[in-house]
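User: My collaborator sent over this chain with a note saying "see what the structure looks like." That's all I know about it. Can you take a look?
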Amino acid sequence: MPIAQLNWQPLVAQLKVPAQPVGGVWTCALEYVVGPRKIKIAATGSWSVIDKLKVVGPDGDSQDWDSSQALLFPGAARGVLVAKIGGGTSDKVGNIFPVGQKTVIDLTDPSTVSSSPPVRGCLFLAMNDDPKNFVRHSGEIAVDVWEAC
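Assistant: Without extra context I'll predict from the sequence alone. Here is the result:
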């Protein structure tokens, strides 16, 4: 079976995503996304988790897995770059998923989704942690976003 090669159109270049966002938990990367489309997100740089004790990259701290429901995404390491589509800047509403250094999201057509809410809305980015800890974070990472064309 042949491997599909996609052409990518840049949407966002070198967006600074702070470990300690001003006025919320999430940083908006794109105002509105809806399927069907494929979005690729890639991140570089490093940020500090909890009082600058541990500097990590976009893949977070591989030694710090906390299944606490207080994390933005309990299934990923603390410090990993996470994204969500939908909701607002200060909530856990919407579809949240881990990104790390790189991911591709395949958004389905909302008209074909019957059982769950369709994935659409603002594309937000943040560090995976308990929002209560955000005041103890520092640094920022740079994020690029593309769309398949």
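A starting point for your reply to your collaborator: Residues 22 and 145 are 21 Å apart (CA to CA).
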